[in-house]
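Supplementary Methods, section 5.1.

A reviewer requested that the exact input to the structure prediction be made available. We therefore reproduce it here, unchanged from the version used in the analyses.
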Amino acid sequence: MPTLKTYTLGCKVNQYETEYLRNGLLLLGYTDAGAGKPGEPGDLVLVNTCTVTAQSDFKSRKILRKVAKENPDAEFVVMGCFATRNPHEIRSLLGAGEAVSLEILCDKREIPAFLRRRGLAEPPNGIAFFGERHRAYVKVQDGCQVGCAYCIIPKVRPHLQSRPVGQVLEEIRVLAQNGYAEIVLTGIHLGHFGIDQEPQSNLAELVGGIVALIDRESLSLRIRVSSLEAVEVSDELVRLFREHPSQICPHFHLSMQSGSDEVLRNMKRRWLSGPFLEKCERIRREIDRVALTTDVIVGFPGETDAQFRETCDLVRRIGFSKVHIFRYSGREGTEAAQLPGQIPADVKKTRAVRLQQIADQLQADYARSLLGTTVQVLCETLETDEGETVVSGTADRYLKVKVPIPAGQSPQEMLGKLVFLPMRNEKNELQT
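The structure derived from this sequence is encoded token-by-token as follows.
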């Protein structure tokens, strides 16, 4: 049987698309290389690349060189945003002459056609497996046309495409039956789900349909919604979160990027700090102990010390339970790369460290706020703590916790299960 190796860089959407292609190739008779033979080269090597930052480009180039060295006789398939943006580089990065088999998928809409060319008459409508994980990502939407000044993604994924609701529901049903206890809904611009459909749909309708599926099929399953813009959190979506806390993780990841209105304007963001704060406060009023997480860019061109302090102040005021911090990285082809006032690297580093200190304190404060409550945990990995095996998992509110192992129960049997855990400040339960 021919063997397959996959490498994925970047976002949840990339990870889903790799798994989709892998699922299709397994149907064609491929097997995963390295099973029982670590380091075994693959007959077919798939590399899914990323270009969201300069570091992503560096990693994409590095992994292409690496796989060429480790798999000298392989066929190569290269996809992802770096491949879309730099297709002319791929062959030279692989050190591939014209005789070497190489296919570059510059548009994700080419993936089903690729599987047909390989001999799969009817490409699957979704995935049935997501590697060895206990949570699965499900891509429901592709494309972004918003055009934030710092972002290259609308240039490489401009086509809006939402999947039919029925197709998504069937995929989730199959994944749940195959043992996946958490489904993460993801997209390039998830909040735009449904706007390209006729008649139009929306994210709340999709989430409501999934809740109905969970109830109707009695599935042991919860869903998590990945990154959204605050403007896209509708009253109906908040109501669903409030009314179905066991099926929908009470966690919103809302992309803030800056707390300074002037910086937000320069970023070409759609919402300023006041409305963003109001949306966060409204969500917090509606949903008990909701986890709010966010992304922040520090060192955007022209950002002053005072504007950075505005960001720190807004982060504190909202009380995020986690902050993903990015130092601004100029991308050729974006508006921001041409702006005056580029910030020195040492200043960006200092600001990132300071904001991380604030974020760490807020995360600890949020974890303490859950003491005395019960959280739902997905048991994911086994760890060793002072010579004892413990189960580590992710709470519905997006905190890492350790789960005590009941007497007489095998730790291995707990993996992949959803359990309810009283939060007590003991070393084997709360991780911050």
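The two ends are 46 Å apart (CA to CA). These observations are discussed further in the main text.
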